[in-house]
Amino acid sequence: MSAGPEVVDARGLRCPLPVVRLAAHAKERPRGTEITVLATDPAARYDVPAWARLRGHAMVAEEQHPGNDETDGRTWWALTVRLED
Amino acid sequence: MTHPTSPTPARTHLDNGGSAPLHPSARQAFVQALDEGWADPRRLHAEGRRAAALLDGAREAVAGVLGTRTEEVRFTPSHTASLHAAMAQVARARRRHGGDVVVGAVERAAVLHAADHVAATGQGRRTTVPVDRVGRVDADELASAALADGVALAALQDANGEVGTRQPVARVHAALEGSGVPLLVDAGASVGHAPLPTAWDLLAADPADWGGPRGLGILAVRHRTRTVPAGPEDPDPWAPGGVSVPAAFAAAVSLQAVAQDLAAEDERRRALVDRIRDGVAGVPDVEVVGDPQDRLPHVVTFSFLYVDGEALVTELDRAGYAVGSGSACTAGTLEPSHVLAAMGVLTHGNVRLALDRSTTAEDVERFLAVLPGAVARVRDALGVSGL
């Protein structure tokens, strides 16, 4: 079924909103779903893995991207989790 | 004309790390030294000699508590200045051995910045040794990094002031014995609260952390540890221009005072922290961080999932409670605490408490009574119920 991970674009949002959006998206998604959060907030790269650990999910990937026009030049991260619970 | 009067709400200060209220003995000693020790201790007249005698007495008293020699104790302008000068002077003395500096990942920012600075000056690099989930470095890993070729010095804190976890300082110091690599021990969060570390080559203590005066740092340097002044020439390269005699005297007197009730205050505050850990665990989705056992007696830190740390600090402040936080945005920066980040724990919704000798069991119970409501209000504002 899968065409890659589902994407939650939280770029431009400050902590804890990226994790809040991720959790809202993850609600009622089936086990095994992969979700990628995009975030410019530097706290997200620590808090998304911490959320996954606290909720029993798995971190799949973490990528750092240089800033572009879309992010006002700010570095952003793509953090992918797989729902396990 | 009359104004409606609202009573000033009682304040409870639970953010005492590095800024505890002045200990009564420090206040008394400071005032006494203002009268007797206001003159320049470097001058030869009676007033100068009286000030010098107070300063000498302060050094001797500090040495007595730290269990070191009087001539090994230096006063500096601040704890940060102690750490900066210690790094710079040791690195300069060790230049021909190399310019690398080895540090734990959760050292305070002043140590990390000083390490970067001296490494850049000595054309070396900073090696940062990671920590585990409770914030502790692996002693063997830090020692083996410090024993590599080209290392000028290593730094490891006695205990972490943000999460309370104690570090394996004695084991690291034993491993470096005989290597010539000095170990700088930042005991700024532990002196005055925990038994004194004895395994160190340079030891930094922070009077402001135990209720001593601001504007003074204490640095002890073992006589066998070579240092070379790194700044412009001054009669006192550790405190160019000299230090405040009243501050040094007050720091020494208060250090003696807190050494007296150390065991009793350890037991009392450890019990309060245990009570806080239990109480906080009753709030949904919270992570209490740091080592639950091998820790400072008076520090406790926890993070609430889906909580804006800045909003929570403000909410608690409004209710009369001053707390610290390692969350981003609470320190005017977008980067969260490097300590929480290095531990891999939640950085948002963070609350950091350091209990003073003046903190009572009643303060703790009142705080625990308002905390769940404050967290719920901040969460409601974000609409996160049910996540």
TrEMBL record, chain A:
Domain of life (superkingdom): Bacteria
UniProt xrefs under InterPro entries: TusA-like, TusA-like_sf
Keyword Transferase on entry: yes
CDD domains membership: SirA_YedF_YeeD
One Pfam entry name: TusA
Residue stretches spanning the membrane: none
Residue span(s) of domain UPF0033: 8-32
Keywords, sorted A to Z: Transferase
MF GO annotations: transferase activity
Protein family (similarity comment): Belongs to the sulfur carrier protein TusA family.
PANTHER family assigned: SULFUR CARRIER PROTEIN YEDF-RELATED
Record-given protein name: Sulfurtransferase TusA family protein
Species of the source: Isoptericola sediminis
From TrEMBL, chain B:
Lineage of the species this protein comes from: Bacteria, Bacillati, Actinomycetota, Actinomycetes, Micrococcales
Descriptive protein name: Aminotransferase class V-fold PLP-dependent enzyme
Residue ranges of every copy of the Aminotransferase class V domain listed in the record: 13-367
Signal sequence, renumbered to the chain: none
Gene3D superfamilies associated with the record: Aspartate Aminotransferase, domain 1, Type I PLP-dependent aspartate aminotransferase-like (Major domain)
Names of the cofactor(s): pyridoxal 5'-phosphate
InterPro entries: Aminotrans_V_dom, Cysteine_dSase, PyrdxlP-dep_Trfase, PyrdxlP-dep_Trfase_major, PyrdxlP-dep_Trfase_small
Keywords: Aminotransferase, Iron, Iron-sulfur, Metal-binding, Pyridoxal phosphate, Transferase
Region Disordered: start-end pairs: 1-23
Top-level taxon in the UniProt lineage: Bacteria
Family: Belongs to the class-V pyridoxal-phosphate-dependent aminotransferase family. NifS/IscS subfamily.
Molecular-function annotations in GO: cysteine desulfurase activity; iron-sulfur cluster binding; metal ion binding; transaminase activity
